[in-house]
Amino acid sequence: MAGFICYTKHMKENTSYRDYIVYDVLGHIPGITFRSMFGGQGIYLNGAIIAIIAGAEVYFKANKELKETYMENDYYPFSYSKNGKTAEMNYVSVKATDLENREEIERRVNESYALSKKD
Q1: Beta-ladder partners of 40
Q2: pTM of the prediction?
């Protein structure tokens, strides 16, 4: 199933992918930081969480409406399995082509940051 990740605290942290995202993809945006969390990483803008890295995938924060819009365009939500149940979070994938498109990445960062500021 596309987009399904069994994500546990026992997964090895993927620092090379994190470094690519934080420094190469988002490095031109002032205020970007990261922290390890639950075996992955949280990406923050000015202290507000905007994305998570799980395995070799990055997912940006979304609300219900954004999530539905992205899913209609072949993106998928972050989900994980715990105790035999699947949970889906309000974070949506990024396509590899988006990672190389500064305008698209900045749009996603701004959307996610606006949502985090509302929380």
Answers
A1: 37
A2: 0.84
3-state secondary structure of 15: helix
Which residues are within 8 A (CB) of 4 and not within 5 positions of it... i.e. 6 or more apart? 79, 81, 86
DSSP state of 12: P
How far is residue 70's CA from residue 75's CA, in Å, rounded to a whole number?
A: 5
Backbone angles phi, psi at 8, to 5 degrees: -130, 170
What is the tens place of the pLDDT at every residue in 51-88? 999 988 999 999 999 999 999 999 999 998 889 999 99
Q: Give me the domains of the chain, ranges plus CATH numbers.
A: 15-118 (3.30.1460.30)
Q: What tens digit of pLDDT does each residue of 4-32 get? A: 333 334 344 558 899 999 999 999 999 99
Give residues with Cβ within 8 angstroms of 9, minimum separation 6: 38, 39
Give the sign of the dihedral formed by CA 37, CA 60, CA 117, CA 87.
Answer: negative
